[in-house]
Amino acid sequence: MPWIAQICDKVCTMMFEPTREAGLARLNAFTADGASDYGRLRNFDIGPKQPSTVSQLSPWIRHRLVSEQEVLAQILNAHDPAQTVSFVQEVFWRGYFKGWLEQRPSVWEHYLIGLDRARENISADYADAISGRTGIACFDHWCAELVATGYLHNHARMWFASIWIFTLRLPWELGADFLLTHLIDGDPASNTLSWRWVAGLHTKGKTYPATAENIARFTEGRFDPAGQLANIAEPLVEPFDHPLVPLTAPSKRFCDDALLLVTPEDCTPQTFIAGQPRDTLGMMILRPAGLAASFTKGAVEQAGREVTPRQIIEAALQAHVSHVVTAWAPVGPVATILATAKTELAKEGITLHQVRRTYDDLTWPHATAGFFKLKKKIPQILRDLDLGSRSATSHP
Ligand SMILES: Cc1cc2nc3c(=O)[nH]c(=O)nc-3n(C[C@H](O)[C@H](O)[C@H](O)COP(=O)(O)OP(=O)(O)OC[C@H]3O[C@@H](n4cnc5c(N)ncnc54)[C@H](O)[C@@H]3O)c2cc1C
Q1: Residues 183 and 277 occupy one common structural domain
Q2: Which residue from 260, 288, 284 is spatially nearest to 353, judged by alpha carbons?
Q3: Exposure check for the chain: N or C terminus, fewer CB within 10 A?
């Protein structure tokens, strides 16, 4: 597709290498050059060719090649607390969405059902939308940028989802699937719940309407879709509530006398699960699209010997271990696969342990309502993580 080639030619700043070193290098660069202006500039999407106004750390954080805790520690250590408030809060949005979906897993199940249903009635408008042929220049550009780079600025994601739902009037599940497939940071919780937030399903009745003025202002005039966008953004409704399910207690096991299983949900479990594993296995789930799939593959491959879920049993039997230890997989495809693997392993007398990071244990319990509930706890969580001294007075 020629438009993808055009964007590729232009993308010089946006390379995502699936290694921890590359993630740390990006964190260092952002700490030095971007963090102090983040609060002022973060809503501007000035285009893939320009230096970013945001950190672009999400591909590494999402797969936990670099953890939220490390990012927070470095930023809080390097900057005046007043300059970090906005960035720190944004980092906590990821934990908020993960914790929220973990406690309302039926949202993910209903998304998958809705996606299957929507796929049965694919329209020509959908084909135009995902090929960047709607005639709405900004939307068509973001479509091409997404496919070419595996990344979109947060504001572009919000505008994209809003135009998809309210102007193009396409099923939100198809749009969420399109992003989840192509984003290198594609994340079941952040993606699904952000789409639902735009649609008025997360904060019930409150939608996010994309406006031409807002797009023109925050793209610095690169786009101005005046007269092309829906004027009304009526909230979508669903005829049921999603029950709150208590968080499951994680395992505390270390990985001595066990196999360590690395998944795309957490590519550095050895940084918080103590012990020397007999072997380290890397289990990946490949999504169809190019850049997202190759980043995930690269990240998991680095960590350990590649296995399919079925080969985990074989590897455990060969290594003569009766324990497989892995990082907790939050609600999503990896968690679904691990649930099946756990049952199959148990039949062979092998226990699968899922160990959770302290950051998640401290964050998720507060993700039961709106973000504000978690936001109020940020100073305490930072103190509990021993990151609080510099930030304690600055956060509400
Ligand atoms: C429709 C839609 C779909 C999205 N899909 C995804 C997705 O699949 N995966 C994903 O990781 N994020 C998703 N987001 C959230 C957000 O857009 C990205 O996390 C952010 O743009 C990543 O870029 P960055 O690292 O430069 O962020 P920065 O602005 O530099 O923020 C730093 C970090 O904070 C976290 N963060 C910031 N904003 C958000 C947010 N709104 N929600 C959750 N975490 C946040 C991320 O870990 C990010 O790396 C989506 C947002 C929308 C509106």
Answers
A1: no
A2: 260
A3: C
